[in-house]
Structures are given as C-alpha cells and as structure tokens.
C-alpha cells in the first residue's frame, strides 16, 4: 500500500536500501596477501596450511603471491603454489573467501636478483604479447581454481631522494619534490597500454565470471603509469602502496618510520598514507571510493644503528648502516619477531635491550631501538606496525569511505599466537575496526 499510494516514499526507501546494500556490500573488505614461499618446508620460517586456516575467518580475499611472466612468450607462470586441489578444499570450508592469484609483486626477479621491470613494459608494448598473456591468465586461473587475477605490475620505481640535510632542503625548494620523470621515457605510452591491457583483461575475466584487481607497488608513480579513472572502471578494486616509504634497501643510511599515516615534518610530502589516498581520491568519482584499499603491513623495517646514529632513537636516524641482520630476513622483522625482542627482559641494567617508543598522536607509527654500544655494536632501529597502529589505519580507511585494507602479509603476523596467545592479532585488530 505504501508503495502504490506514495510512490516517492517507496522510491526513497528503495534507493536508501540500495545505498545501504552497496555500502554494506563494498566496504570493510579485508584483502589478505599470502606469501606462498613460506609454506615451503625449507623456507626460513615455514608455515603449514593448517596454520593458515584460522586467518581465513577474517579475510574476504586471499591473494596468493606471486606468479611471474615468462620473458620468451609473455605467458604467466606460477611459482610456489601449493600443489593439489587445496583451493577447492579451502573454498568448501570458507565459502565467503575469494581466491586470487597475484602477478609481479617485486617477486619476479631477473638474473641479478632484482625485480624485472623490462619484461613488464615489453609485454605492454605489443598487442600480441598482451593477448598471449591474457589467454594464459584465464587458463592458469582455471587450472588452480582461482576466482581472479591481481596485477601487482612491476613498473619502474621512483629513485630514492637525496639524503636528509641542508642540501636536500635547498634542492627540494628549487626543483620541487616531484621531479621523477626520468624513470621511464616512454611512461606516457606505457600508461596508455596498461589501461588497454586492463580493458582487454576485464572483458575476458568477466566473461569467465572472475575478478580483476590492481595492486600498486611501493614507489611506483601512479601519476606516470596509471590512468586512475580507467583503472577504477576496469578493476574490481585497487590496493594502494601505502607502506615501505622508507626501507633499509632504498635508504640504507637513514632509518625512519616506514609508513606514517600523516605527513611528517621535513619528509617527502608524498611519503604517507594520507597523501597517497588523497592523490587517488582526487582522481576518483565518489561512487568508486569503496574500490580503494590501503596497504598495511605485519612486518617492520629494521636498520643497524651505528655509534654516529646517536642515542635518542628519535627518527630520522642519521648514519645508519643498512638492513639489520636480526630476524629471518635482513631488514625485515615480522610482528612475532619484534614482539619477542620487546619481551626479552635484560638480566641486568647494563645489558642493552630494545626500547619501544609509542605514538600518542596516532599519526606516525611506533618504533623501537637499541643504540649502538661503546664498541659500535648491537645497534638496531625498527619502525613497525602493531595491532594498535594497524587498527588506526583501518579506522582511517573506514572514516574515508574506502573499501578496506590490503594486508601484507598473513605469514608475517603472529601465526601461532606466540606473542600474546592470540593468533593473527594484527589481522584481527584491522578487521574489528573496518
Ligand atoms: C587534491 O586536490 C586538492 C584540491 O585540488 C589539492 O589541494 C591537493 O594538493 C590534492 N592532493 C593530492 C595528494 O594530490
């Protein structure tokens, strides 16, 4: 009756309902990246499939990393995928999860052990290379039972900026912070070709009833390589690279907070979550905000502190000495590794131990440090994400109407609950805030 007598009310109710459904359907998404090499029994810290399963209660997407590209024929090649029918088995237990395969992700390395970017550009340049790739994607997805493909495309990265200091400030004023065009002279063409690839893939992928997502990698300029409105039209969602702004590989001499939420004084103004999100929002139609996800890590970035790095630990730390060897990989500490270091109580007051420095402003992130001793040894500085800071970022995503969070990576969270007795504490704290 209501609907026939008062059509406007009916219409209003319908559209409110539609809006509500879109919102509840599209936000609060948890995209869980999953580094499959860590499943291998010979990896430094192996994880079993059974240990992975509790995480899936909190994930909407499980993204397997990573597949690469064959340089001869430009077909996709998957490495390190668990064998057998396990995706279909997982799907039966966790019917709400969609399973995607990610290609690139800086894991597709060349003979020198560095991420191969040339191959990713050559693929774009020839329509027949693109069509080889597309055909191989569909057959690879079908072969393993994936629901979609994620393009973590290995575009050339911006060069690290000059070191901190007077020189940098002067240079910053004269040249601007943003002059980064030299990474690829054909960037404009590659941008167009990548948009074309996404359009072509979208057609194939949707015909096959599957999904297409885009994952930005840290220090890849969207301005140079991504046609944002087109990418958002074709992708089901986009994961932004809002982490690893400062890393011991790129900035071996200066330790600093790797993923501040907001701009920090005298830092590159683009090196924070808020800037990256705003950059994309500026080029995005309002209805597409919920296609954007921010990246949050479960690991920290660690440097060696030298005697010249001072004793306060207050970032930026000068005269650092590259990636700290502590942990299962140089320059990276997983959350359980950091937690363990923080819990180690010194046996006496003289023994240096890691001190945590929190962030009451909730803007920049937490760090922990141990100044170098008199011999110049044992110095360590780590900037990281803990359950509290990760929750702050989830709240930020929610407040801006974004789609959710892309979590890098399940295997670096506290898989076994050895820190505080709870498994996947960072993943949980993000999910509860979304
Ligand atoms: C977004 O647009 C506003 C208004 O045009 C501008 O002031 C701001 O600098 C832009 N932000 C980014 C990150 O591009």
UniProtKB/TrEMBL annotation:
Cell compartment(s), UniProt: Secreted
Positions of the GH18 domain: 28-434
Residues forming coiled coils: none
A GO biological-process term: chitin catabolic process
GO molecular function terms noted in the UniProt entry: chitin binding; chitinase activity
Keywords: Developmental protein, Disulfide bond, Glycoprotein, Secreted, Signal
GO CC list: extracellular region
Main location: secreted
Taxonomy, superkingdom: Eukaryota
UniProt signal peptide: 1-25
Family classification: Belongs to the glycosyl hydrolase 18 family. IDGF subfamily.
Protein name: Chitinase-like protein Idgf5
Native source organism of the sequence: Drosophila kikkawai (Fruit fly)
Lineage of source species: Eukaryota, Metazoa, Ecdysozoa, Arthropoda, Hexapoda
Gene transcribed to yield this protein: Idgf5
């Amino acid at each position: 009756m209501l609907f026939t007598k008062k059509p406007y009310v009916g219409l209003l109710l319908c559209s409110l309902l539609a809006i509500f459904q879109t919102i509840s359907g599209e936000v609060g998404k948890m995209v869980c990246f999953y580094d499959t090499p860590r499943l291998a029994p010979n990896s430094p810290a192996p994880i079993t499939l059974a240990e992975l399963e509790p995480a899936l209660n909190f994930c909407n997407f499980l993204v397997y990393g990573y597949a690469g590209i064959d340089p001869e024929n430009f077909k996709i090649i998957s490495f390190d995928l668990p064998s057998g029918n396990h995706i279909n088995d997982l799907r039966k237990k966790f019917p709400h999860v969609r399973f995607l395969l990610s290609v690139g992700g800086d894991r597709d390395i060349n003979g020198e052990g560095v991420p191969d970017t040339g191959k990713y550009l050559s693929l774009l340049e020839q329509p027949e290379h693109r069509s080889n790739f597309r055909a191989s994607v569909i057959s690879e997805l079908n072969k393993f039972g994936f629901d979609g493909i994620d393009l973590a495309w290995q575009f050339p990265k911006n060069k690290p900026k000059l070191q901190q200091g007077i020189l940098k400030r002067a240079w910053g004023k004269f040249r601007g912070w943003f002059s980064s065009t030299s990474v690829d002279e054909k960037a404009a063409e590659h941008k167009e070709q990548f948009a074309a690839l996404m359009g072509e893939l979208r057609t194939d992928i949707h015909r096959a009833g599957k999904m297409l997502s885009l994952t930005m990698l840290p220090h890849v300029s969207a301005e140079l390589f991504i046609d944002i409105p087109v990418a958002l039209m074709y992708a089901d969602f986009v994961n932004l690279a809002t982490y690893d702004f400062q890393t011991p590989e790129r900035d071996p001499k200066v330790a600093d907070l790797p993923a501040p939420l907001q701009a920090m004084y005298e830092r590159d103004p683009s090196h924070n979550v808020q800037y990256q999100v705003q950059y994309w929002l500026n080029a995005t139609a309002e209805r597409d905000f919920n296609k954007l996800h921010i990246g949050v890590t479960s690991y920290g970035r660690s440097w060696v502190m030298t005697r010249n790095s001072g004793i306060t630990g207050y970032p930026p730390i000068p005269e650092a000495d590259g990636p700290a060897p502590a942990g299962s990989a140089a320059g990276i500490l997983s959350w359980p590794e950091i937690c363990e270091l923080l819990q180690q109580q010194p046996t006496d007051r003289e023994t240096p131990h890691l001190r945590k420095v929190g962030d009451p402003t909730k803007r920049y992130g937490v760090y922990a440090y141990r100044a170098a001793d008199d011999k110049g040894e044992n110095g360590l500085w780590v900037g990281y994400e803990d359950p509290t800071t990760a929750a702050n970022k989830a709240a930020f995503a929610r407040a801006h109407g974004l789609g959710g969070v892309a979590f890098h990576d399940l295997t670096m969270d506290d898989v076994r609950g050895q820190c505080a007795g709870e498994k996947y504490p960072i993943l949980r704290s993000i999910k509860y805030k979304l």
